[in-house]
């Protein structure tokens, strides 16, 4: 949930209740869908990274010329990509 | 005003008060003295933040998400069977089960996962019990998913068959979901506008449902056909991309489902003003008076799962919520708080049954009784809506609860099947279409042949056993870190013993039915199946086969459960022995461990 525009200003009790209710409603109605959408995007990004950096991993997917053209866009994502790909995954992680 | 003591009002107030003590008293005490949650400790959401799976979320959002993920058909239908033994034992189990075990499991699973760097139960089981333990869990979960699917397909088919207006209404919501998915993701329409359109379509669907009731003309074959239609819908949900179908449909289904919960709670609290007394006997009946279900222990404790204690919750708590917990101290409101709130949903459902007459429960076939109870509780203040509209609305709510959860269960089965059979000789079973068909065909077979109450009790048994095993994992962790473990060990042992006993009873019932058949008494085998197999003498051999299959299912669940329990108890004993060996000597002020130089 978005924080108040002025963090220094003490939030009134009413505003806290309002934020709480908004949070609960968002959590019930949409949070699961938002995380599912994020996960779908993550898998697509994994695919993109694999295609882009495939030849560096020993799996040439596209010609190196195009890989090099795309590289500036892929480099900033390498760290988080590695972090996610190397993470231990289990079937019990996929309940929701 | 009616005599307030004759209404369920005071029971609602008493339950809320006891749950308050569970949260602010027992819960805070466990949080402080057993888990010692620390707001300053970094949670996996911060340690491994990737903005996708691991990221901190406000406790309010996470509470809403957790509650929505755990509250489904379980707390609504469990009390229907539980009330067989009288409403008082059912109520006491909803209160006591949740007080001592339910919230403890949900909260403990979340804390365990947080302390294990956000790992879910698969890797934790591997750590505590080895590779065989994890394989055991995988086999158990596969069986568990098949049984859940069978119970839910049977129920959805029964609801469509019982409430003639609900099929068109369900279809309307599914089509509205498809349309909203397109508007949201293809047309990039604003989410508020899509929600408005979707809600308009939901109301229209209910109206059309009332106007166009559908009753199939094939008598005893109606249920198998409804079940088949349900399986086709679930297949589409399992193989289509989630943003296209499951996601928008679940989003739209949320609104009527939660509106119904609020209406039911208001109806339960308003009973002194609406003059609705309790009509069901309080019990306790130590055996099912109708001679179908068996003894109060262990059956009641597996019949009412969600609302008192449910193993499914441990998977939810440890798979996604624990990865998004902002601070450790949020685990109590999110995990424990959501479970206690679900207890209130079970209570509201129990009250919907309590206000009905005993004749509404004869033969345990009137599974739609909740709808009649809900209509009875809400009609006094929703008088402008006709009984037909309210019946369709509450019937639809039952169906969308079952359908939305079942869509996720079918997808999960597909993923587990991919994990299990993705490689090797049976890799065809790992294919998404094959696994979805298998994951629906077997449950459909069970659903259309077995009595729904038999399936529900197997489902409850498997679910509660999973809960017992989850609590044992929590206990092992506590023993390893030398925290007090008896508060989870006693509930864990109780749940494991109770549910294994329930599985033995259920399996024994089917075995006895086969034995009776061999003694020329076919009433028992026919009692355990449903039409057309129950009514057609030519299909008697199928009835016998189904009883035999149920014996095998029960036996497999029992032995996998026992095997898992033995591994966990061994691991617990080892943990206790290790902890004792490393216990600080009393004389050194607790700084030097035994055996150290």
Task: List the topology elements.
The complex is a heterodimer of chains A (96) and B (597).
Chain A: H1 13-53, H2 64-74, H3 78-85
Chain B: H1 9-35, H2 44-47, H3 59-70, H4 74-82, H5 87-115, H6 121-162, H7 166-186, H8 191-211, H9 222-239, H10 246-269, H11 271-274, H12 296-303, H13 311-319, H14 331-354, H15 369-378, H16 387-421, H17 432-449, H18 452-480, H19 486-518, H20 523-527, H21 540-581
Helix pairs in contact in B: 1-5, 1-14, 3-14, 4-12, 4-14, 5-13, 5-14, 5-18, 5-19, 6-9, 6-16, 6-17, 6-18, 6-21, 7-8, 7-10, 7-16, 8-10, 8-16, 9-16, 9-17, 10-14, 10-16, 12-18, 12-19, 13-18, 14-15, 15-16, 16-17, 18-19, 18-21, 19-21
What can you tell me about this protein's structure?
Chain A has helices at residues 13-53, 64-74, 78-85. Chain A has 96 residues and is mostly helical. Chain A has a domain at 48-87. In chain A, helix 1 (13-53) runs antiparallel to helix 2 (64-74). By secondary structure, chain B is mainly α. Chain B has a single domain, classed as Amino acid/polyamine transporter I (Up-down Bundle), CATH 1.20.1740. Chain B is built from 21 helices and no strands. In chain B, helix 7 runs antiparallel to helix 8 (191-211) and helix 8 packs across helix 10 (246-269). Residues 586-597 of chain B have low confidence and may be disordered.
Q: How would you summarize what this structure contains?
A:
The complex is a heterodimer of chains A (96) and B (597). With 96 residues, chain A is mainly α. Helix content of chain A is 62%, strand content 0%.
Descriptive keywords:
heterodimer, A: 96 residues, mainly alpha, 3 helices, B: 597 residues, Amino acid/polyamine transporter I, 21 helices, 0% strand
């Amino acid at each position: 949930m978005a924080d108040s525009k002025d963090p220094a200003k003490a939030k009134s009790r009413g505003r806290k209740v309002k934020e709480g209710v908004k949070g609960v409603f968002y959590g019930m109605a949409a949070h699961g869908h938002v995380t599912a959408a994020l996960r779908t995007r993550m898998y697509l990004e994994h695919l993109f990274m694999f295609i882009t950096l495939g030849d560096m991993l020993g799996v040439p997917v596209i010609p190196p010329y195009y890989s090099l053209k795309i590289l500036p866009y892929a480099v900033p994502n390498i760290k988080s990509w590695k972090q996610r790909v190397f993470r231990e995954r289990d079937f019990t992680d996929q309940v929701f | 005003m009616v005599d307030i003591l004759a209404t369920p009002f005071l029971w609602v107030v008493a339950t809320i008060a006891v749950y308050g003590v569970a949260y602010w008293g027992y819960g805070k005490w466990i949080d402080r003295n057993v888990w010692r949650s620390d707001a300053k400790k970094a949670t996996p959401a911060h340690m491994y933040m990737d903005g996708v799976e691991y990221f901190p979320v406000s406790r309010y959002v996470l509470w809403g998400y957790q509650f929505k993920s755990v509250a489904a058909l379980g707390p609504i239908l469990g009390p229907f069977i539980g009330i067989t033994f009288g409403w008082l034992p059912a109520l006491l189990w909803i209160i006591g089960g949740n007080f001592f075990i339910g919230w403890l499991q949900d909260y403990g699973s979340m804390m365990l996962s947080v302390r294990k760097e956000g790992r879910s139960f698969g890797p934790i089981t591997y750590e505590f019990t080895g590779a065989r333990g994890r394989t055991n869990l995988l086999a158990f979960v596969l069986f568990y998913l098949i049984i859940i699917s069978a119970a839910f397909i049977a129920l959805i088919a029964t609801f469509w068959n019982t409430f003639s207006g609900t099929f068109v209404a369900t279809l309307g919501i599914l089509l509205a979901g498809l349309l909203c998915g397109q508007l949201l993701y293809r047309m990039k329409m604003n989410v508020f506008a899509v929600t408005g359109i979707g809600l308009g379509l939901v109301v229209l669907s209910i109206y059309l449902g009332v106007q166009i009731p559908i009753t199939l003309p094939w008598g005893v074959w109606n249920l198998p056909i409804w079940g088949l239609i349900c399986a086709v819908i679930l297949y589409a949900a399992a193989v289509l991309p989630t943003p296209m179908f499951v996601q928008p449909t679940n989003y739209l289904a949320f609104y009527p489902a939660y509106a119904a919960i609020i209406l039911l709670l208001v109806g339960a609290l308003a009973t002194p003003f609406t003059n609705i007394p309790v009509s069901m006997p309080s019990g306790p009946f130590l055996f099912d008076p109708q001679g179908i279900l068996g003894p109060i222990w262990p059956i009641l404790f597996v019949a009412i799962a969600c609302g008192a204690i449910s193993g499914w919750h441990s998977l939810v708590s440890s798979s996604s919520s624990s990865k998004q917990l902002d601070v450790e101290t949020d685990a109590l409101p999110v995990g424990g708080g959501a479970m206690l709130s679900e207890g209130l949903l079970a209570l509201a459902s129990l009250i919907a049954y309590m206000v009905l007459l005993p004749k509404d429960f004869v033969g345990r076939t009137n599974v739609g009784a909740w709808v009649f109870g809900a209509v009875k509780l809400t009609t006094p203040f929703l008088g402008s809506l006709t009984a037909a509209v309210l019946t369709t609305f509450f019937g639809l709510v039952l169906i969308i609860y079952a359908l939305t959860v079942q869509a996720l269960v079918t997808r999960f089965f597909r993923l587990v099947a991919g994990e299990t059979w993705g490689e090797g000789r049976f890799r065809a079973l790992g294919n998404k279409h094959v696994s979805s068909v298998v994951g629906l065909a077997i449950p459909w077979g069970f659903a259309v042949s077995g009595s729904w109450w038999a399936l529900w009790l197997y489902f409850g048994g498997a679910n509660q056993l999973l809960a017992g095993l989850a609590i044992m994992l929590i206990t092992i962790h506590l023993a390893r870190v030398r925290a007090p473990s008896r508060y989870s060990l006693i509930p864990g042992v109780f749940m494991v013993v109770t549910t294994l006993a329930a599985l033995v009873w259920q399996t024994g019932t089917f075995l006895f039915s086969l034995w009776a058949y061999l003694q020329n008494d076919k009433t028992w085998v026919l009692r355990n199946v449903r039409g057309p197999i129950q009514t057609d003498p030519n299909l008697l051999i199928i009835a016998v086969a189904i009883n035999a299959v149920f014996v095998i299912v029960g036996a497999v669940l029992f032995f996998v459960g026992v095997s898992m329990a033995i591994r966990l108890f061994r691991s617990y004993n080892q943990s206790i022995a290790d902890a004792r060996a490393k216990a600080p000597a009393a004389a050194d002020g607790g700084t030097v461990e035994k055996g150290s130089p």
